[in-house]
Amino acid sequence: MPEYSRNYIRAHDDPINAAVAAVKEPQPEYVRLGQECPVAKHSAGTTLFKFADIVELTRRRDILGEGAPGPSMGAPRPMIPLDLDGPEHARYRRLLDPLLAPRAIAYLEPEVRRLTNELIDDFGQTDRVELYSQFCVPLPSTVFLNLLGLPVEDLSIINELKENVIRPQRKTSSDAEAFALVVDSGKRAISYLDERVAAREAAGANGKDLLSKILSMEVDGDRLTRDQVLDVLWLLVIAGLDTVTSSLSSMFAWLAEHPVERHRLAAEPSVIPAAIEELMRYETPVTATDRWATEDIVVRGQTIKAGEHIVVSWAAANLDPEEFPDPLTVNFDRKGNRHIAFASGFHRCLGSHLARLEMRVVFEEFHKRIPDYRLIDEDPPQWVYESSRCPTYLPLQLNWAQ
Ligand code: HEM
Predict the structure, then answer these.
(1) Does ligand 1 have an atom closer than 6 angstroms to the CB of 292?
(2) Per-domain residue ranges for the chain?
(3) C-alpha angle 283/394/73, rounded to 5°?
(4) In whole angstroms, what is the distance from residue 171 CA to residue 270 CA?
(5) CA separation for the pair 243, 285 (Å, rounded)
(6) Residue 325: what pLDDT?
(7) Is 112 in the pocket of ligand 1 (CB under 6 A)?
(8) Homologous superfamily in CATH for domain 3-399
């Protein structure tokens, strides 16, 4: 596999490809793959499908994360903490975890509620909306830029750069062009962020936004260097803008076709947190990410060689019948749902509390005002699987509450 195809293009013979490429409902295929080839060998390495194997592997010190072969997603240096491993990774997690802990972000709730209602107001009482661009993109992006302390007016620049590194294929026609776009956009993003950090430092970094907090963080008694600040920020931008958008879009698409469950959200809002966990399990928009073996290991009798690339399929793990009885049934009352849609092990998601807060508030407010919506037969959603899997075009027919 060419070096630059990492993160963007799965090997043609990786069974995940066939299962999820632009397919509306790949879940049964994941279950089949987990049963038939739980450890799948292909030209780019090994893909793992079973929940227990993935949870065990992602806790092993001899397995490295995304960044083992070099910085990911156009970054000039390893992104912090995603591309780091071992004690260095742990040191940064200790500093960053408290910044996005439930108590640290709880103050955002009224703002998320206000913004959700403002975006719904902007629908203008129409009975049709394209939910992806009119809601799923702007809501988390605006929340996150405010939280970071970056100007919301810059959203289109930031979104463009983020799209270029996550989905370069959309604007290019070969792997080489895609690679060039990723590298160029990574550079532009770092230089944009550099200007913003300089401006913040000049203005005095003492706000309650994340950028101010990152600027005052210390590692072993020293402030972060400018490069380290940028390596944290760029990862947060990529991770914070895209994932909540994909999750909202895929969950709304599912609810649009399941009126019984959707009505339950409106009638019984206390079920919303459990419903979100169950839909995250079933949809798992960040379907798979990469790990790297540093020593030979054996999984279910198959050897993964030192240096080999491992794809961990969070989506398949979340549909593993050995962990989730009746995995293809979406059941808001499911007991013991330990899904790993936010990953497992050392690199588990840093932003899961923020993501959960946003999704809960959105579901509460949206279903109060628009309890009924459905897909439109002649204008169906368009599902994509590039970095995450979701509909990036989601037209809905709305029925407003009276
Ligand atoms: C529903 C939304 C989200 C999903 C499904 C999600 C999923 C994930 C997954 C699967 C990983 C593991 C990546 C890997 O190991 O290769 C991850 C890591 C990460 N996520 Fe999220 N994420 C979400 C929201 C967020 C948000 C809002 C932020 C930012 C505030 C964020 C920040 C991060 C960071 C910084 C990491 C790297 C952690 C590390 O390497 O130690 N995520 N996320």
Answers:
(1) no
(2) 3-399
(3) 60
(4) 43
(5) 7
(6) 97
(7) no
(8) Cytochrome P450 (1.10.630.10)
The percent of residues in the chain predicted with pLDDT above 90, rounded, is 75
Name the residue of 350, 353, 390 to mutate for ligand 1: max ligand atoms within 8 A of Cβ.
350
Residue nearest atom 32 of ligand 1, based on CA coordinates: 351
Dig out the tokens for 261 from the structure: 């469950």
* Per-residue model confidence as pLDDT tens digits over 289-298: 999 999 999 9
Residue with CA nearest ligand 1 atom 21: 349
What dihedral do alpha carbons 97, 343, 288, 58 form, nearest 10°?
Answer: 100
Q: Is the CB of 74 under 6 A from ligand 1?
A: no
Name the residue type at position 184: D
Task: Decide: 285 in ligand 1 pocket, CB within 6 A.
Answer: yes
Burial class (CB in 10 A: 0-12, 13-18, 19+), 221: exposed
Give a three-class secondary structure readout of the chain.
CCHHHCCCCCCCCCHHHHHHCCCCCCHHHHHHHHHHCCEEEECCEEEECCHHHHHHHCCCCCEECCCCCCCCCCCCCCCCCCCCCHHHHHHHHHHHHHHHCHHHHHHHHHHHHHHHHHHHHHCCCCCEEEHHHHHHCHHHHHHHHHHHCCCHHHHHHHHHHHHHHHCHHHHCCCHHHHHHHHHHHHHHHHHHHHHHHHHHHHHCCCCCCHHHHHHCCEECCEECCHHHHHHHHHHHHHHHHHHHHHHHHHHHHHHHCCHHHHHHHHHCHHHHHHHHHHHHHHHCCCCEEEEEECCCEEECCEEECCCCEEEEEHHHHCCCCCCCCCCCCCCCCCCCCCCCCCCCHHHCCCCHHHHHHHHHHHHHHHHHHCCEEEECCCCCCEEEECCCEEEEECEEEEECCC
Scored b (16 or more CB within 10 A) or e, 361-395 reads: bbbbbbbeebbbbeeeeeeebebbbbbbbbbbebb
d(CA 188, CA 158): 10
Is 0.70 surpassed by the pTM of this model? yes
Residues 153-196 have pLDDT tens digits of 999 999 899 889 888 878 888 888 888 998 999 999 999 999 99
CA 290 – ligand 1 centroid, Å: 13
